[in-house]
Write a structure and sequence with these properties.
eight-stranded mixed sheet, Nucleoside Triphosphate Pyrophosphohydrolase, alpha+beta, Aminopeptidase, 332 residues, 24% helix, DNA replication, 2 domains, 31% strand, disordered N terminus, DNA repair, binds 8-OXO-guanosine-5'-triphosphate
């Protein structure tokens, strides 16, 4: 399945750039991390921290990004590229999860850097890697780190023990976890134009389409970072605006999102989803379409995939789509 991070484009936050580490970062990285107050909070960092290890570590991070295994990045100030710390994610492919870690140099503490950087990396990962959850741990004696995780949206799930190189043995840790629902945008953004519904959830009418190419493959689009359920794959489409028919909404959405022209006659009603989400009830007619004009182009920067019917189940999709996928697979 496609991951969109073979070469890593830096992630921006309000104040920082999360970018691959470079050989030239080694001296500053060593200066910041070779500090007992920092090293004692990190499981895999020895203390004292040998200068050569900074070079080796930086070289290894590039290899692991290229292999799509781990993303250990510099947190660099946007205005002057000064390194203030690092944050990273290590994937567990089988478990569809990743482990988050971060540290900030002592001279840069107290500015809210860790939640800004680690939060961005976590949201990016859920939107762009094929993972469903992110785990993290904090030493029981590191209340500051637990606060960072809570600010990002992590839930505490238990306690455990972890080996800490700097402490010379196993130490008690608090364990945290976050999934898509935990790291969703602020509730205001997550509520999709609710209509008043006394005594119940608002019904949201969304029109979607299974575009089918001449090889009988179906187009899926990935929900981008910043939207609820970011990272899940879905059928192209969108909300039906007041006064619009589902067909007109689809024709508009397909032009806006994919740059293609579709006529109503080419939209064949196929099935519908009716699914209760936490804040609304989704009613989503799914049309099928085999004919359109123009080349399918991801105009909103979304990842696209043409997927064979038998492979559809390998793509993580919103829960409302699961029955549709089964129907579509049988039909195609
Ligand atoms: N287009 C589409 N939306 C789906 C599918 N499955 C599903 O649950 N949905 C939900 O239906 C809603 C679609 O709304 P949308 O795409 O217009 O809106 P959005 O939340 O992306 O925000 P937007 O208004 O900023 O575009 C979202 O809540 C989305 O999660 C699907 O297969 N295709």
């Amino acid at each position: 399945m496609p991951d969109s991070a073979v070469t890593f484009a830096p992630l921006e936050t309000a104040r920082f750039l999360l970018r691959p580490l470079r050989a030239g970062d080694a001296a500053e990285l060593h200066r910041l991390v070779n500090d007992w107050e920092v090293a004692k909070t990190l499981a895999r960092v020895p203390f004292p921290y040998p200068r050569d290890l900074a070079d080796e570590w930086i070289a290894s991070t590039a290899e692991r990004i290229a292999a799509n295994e781990a993303y250990h990045l510099a947190i660099a100030r946007r205005e002057d590229d000064v390194l203030v710390g690092c944050c990273g994610l290590t994937r567990d492919r089988e478990d569809r999860s990743a482990e988050l870690g971060y540290w900030v140099g002592r001279r840069h503490w107290g500015q809210g850097i860790a939640p800004e950087a680690a939060g961005r990396l976590a949201r990016w990962a859920l939107a762009n890697l094929d993972i469903d959850r992110i785990t993290a741990s904090a030493l029981v004696d590191n209340a500051r780190s637990a606060t960072v995780l809570a600010r990002i949206g992590f839930r505490e799930t238990g306690t455990g023990a972890q080996d800490f190189l700097s402490r010379g043995g196993a130490m008690p840790v608090r364990i945290f976890e976050a999934g898509r629902a935990d790291l969703a945008p602020a509730p205001a953004a997550a509520v999709p134009s609710p209509e008043p519904a006394p005594g119940g959830k608002p019904i949201l009418l969304v029109a979607a389409v299974g575009l089918i190419d001449p090889d009988n493959r179906v187009l899926l689009a990935r929900r981008p970072e910043g939207k609820p359920m970011a990272g899940l794959w879905e059928f192209p489409g969108g909300k039906v605006h007041p006064g619009e028919t589902p067909e007109a909404a689809l024709i508009r959405e397909l032009k806006e999102e994919l740059g293609i022209d579709v006529t109503e006659a080419c939209l064949a009603p196929f099935a519908f989803a009716s699914h209760g989400y936490e804040r609304f009830h989704l009613l989503m007619p799914l049309f099928l379409c085999r004919r359109w004009q123009g080349a399918v182009t991801p105009l909103e920067g979304q990842a696209l995939a043409w997927v064979r019917p038998q492979k559809l189940a390998e793509y993580a999709m919103p829960p409302a789509d699961v029955p549709l996928v089964a129907l579509l697979r049988d039909f195609l």
